[in-house]
Amino acid sequence: MAVASLVLGxxxxxxxxxxxCGAPLAIAGIITGILGLNSTSRGMAIAGLxxxxxxxxxxxxxxxxxxxxxxxxxxxxxxxxxxxPVQP
Length: 88
Hints:
Number of strands: 0
Strand content: under 5%
Shape: rod-shaped
Structural class: mainly alpha
Order of helices and strands: HHH
């Protein structure tokens, strides 16, 4: 379980950009890290917990920022499309 937590934590640090992928991986990494704390590979479990926690925080921040900025990007896209010349 400790190795699984470490691997999930590393993958989470790559997948936090897509919160729909990063958040579930981070939660799975945290769960396996907690279960792995009782094993002999306690250091790997702790590292997995830290990496998964960091990935979860980054995924949540990315989600909030995306949610807050979505209306502005929508307006910018509509303005851009209005300025585009119409091709016959």
